[in-house]
Write a structure and sequence with these properties.
Layout: H1 9-12, E1 20-24, H2 30-39, E2 43-47, H3 51-59, E3 63-64, H4 68-72, E4 77-80, H5 85-93, E5 107-110, H6 116-128, E6 132-135, E7 138-139, H7 141-147, E8 150-155, H8 158-171, E9 172-179, H9 183-211, H10 216-223, H11 231-235, H12 258-274, H13 280-294
Bound molecules: nicotinamide-adenine-dinucleotide (NAD).
Amino acid sequence: MTSRVRPSATRQGEGMSDTWVAFMGLGTMGRPMAERLVAAGYRLAVYDPLPEALDALAAVGAQAAPSARKAVTGARVVITMLPDGPHVREALTGPEGVLQEMSPGSTLIDMSTIDPPTSKELAGLARRHGVRMLDAPVSGSSAGAVDGTLTVMVGGDAGVLAELRPLLSVLGRNVVHCGDHGAGVSVKLANQIVAGTSMVAVAESYALAQSLGIDPRLLFDVVSASSGDCWALRTRPPVPGVLGTSPADDGFRPGFRGALMRKDLDLALATAEAHAVNLPVTSRARELYAQLTGKGLDDRDFSAVFTLLAGEGPGTRPPRR
Ligand code: NAD
């Protein structure tokens, strides 16, 4: 993947760019985010177990660390952008965990989407090591990570956020304090309920319209100017040839993987269960995303959920792998 960082990033991070930052997790999101921080002038040490991810960041001026612990040594800020709660826990507190290596007074910003209880527990463990923590998951997909237009949902101390807002503003256009530890990931899960279920609704709308012989572009134009307008429709009409830029135009290349949407809805449902809240539509949507796994499609964009509903009519081209 080649990501292009806009030069305007340099101005946004003014005032903090002599800060040593360690960045762990250089995948779909982490790599362009780390690249933006380098472009903004931050001194970055990076770590990912995948050598090609490290090489890509070294090529733009980051220091590729041989281990996670080496990456965080001396860093004032450590950012984690990892798949799920167990990965974050392992990275921080496992046999090679970095928490004990972090300097007292430094700050851990976990930008992964994980469950609120794990996030709160890790904030408590960090505090015991003298490390401040923010949960700061994001929304905006890989395009938002490249452009620095993510929404960043922050849980933790407002004063710590105020201090680190210049850095987070390099990554996101909307950096919002949501409350105490765990509030950022809680808001993120609430967002994922809307994103995940509305994508299924858009897919159902296209499946029906297709079977009725309605032109897919006409459907997009009418619904996006009507009460059915939503982000899922505007970014991901699930048939090719509508926008030319939708994942459906490129064999459902992500974007945001179906496996991650299933994971996020799992987290939302587990959280809801713990609080005795019934989420029937989310539950059904989660089942559909799980079916993508059964069909070997969970590494495709989550809009591939359409292929579970549609017949073999025009626009249901099998995904390219
Ligand atoms: P990804 O799977 O593409 O990347 C994760 C990276 O973490 C991989 O490169 C992996 O090698 C690395 N990694 C795993 N364990 C590690 C460790 N111990 N130390 C260092 N690196 C490690 O995932 P992603 O799409 O970048 O998503 C990251 C997080 O952001 C997830 O929680 C996801 O739900 C969330 N998110 C993703 C998107 C998106 O569009 N992809 C959008 C918003 C939020």
